[in-house]
Design brief:
The chain is built from four helices and two strands; from the N terminus they run βααααβ. It is mainly α and about 110 residues long. The longest helix has 21 residues. Keywords: Membrane, Transmembrane, Transmembrane helix.
Length: about 110
């Protein structure tokens, strides 16, 4: 007699956008101060809003202000004039935040 394995009862929708954002932010360190950094700002801002939406869907409200703040800080439309060591340190910190949220934001399967 074989036992059936049950699928996990939770799904982590923010995990893939979190991994993509982490990879983007790691690569973005090399482009801080160049014109290409604007492209990275677009990607990170969009992914931050996507993860915030998944947090809303999962009712993990405490993540929403974190990712709205990331979306605002990395926004390419009205960019903040940050440069140098601040941006270099901000990239892996934000990437770690994306990864942590991707792991922790989960909602029950329907």
């Amino acid at each position: 007699m074989t036992q059936r394995q049950q699928a996990p009862s939770y799904q982590r929708n923010a995990l893939l956008p979190g991994f993509i954002a982490l990879a983007t932010l790691i690569v973005a360190v090399a482009f801080v101060g160049s014109d290409w950094f604007t492209v990275f700002r677009f990607v990170v801002s969009i992914l931050a809003l996507i993860v915030a939406w998944f947090a809303v869907q999962a009712r993990h409200w405490w993540w929403v202000p974190v990712f709205v703040a990331i979306a605002v800080l990395w926004n390419p439309v009205y960019p903040f004039p940050f440069s140098g060591i601040f941006w270099i340190l901000a990239q892996p910190i934000a990437g770690s935040t994306f990864l942590l949220a991707g792991i922790l934001i989960r909602k029950p399967r329907t």
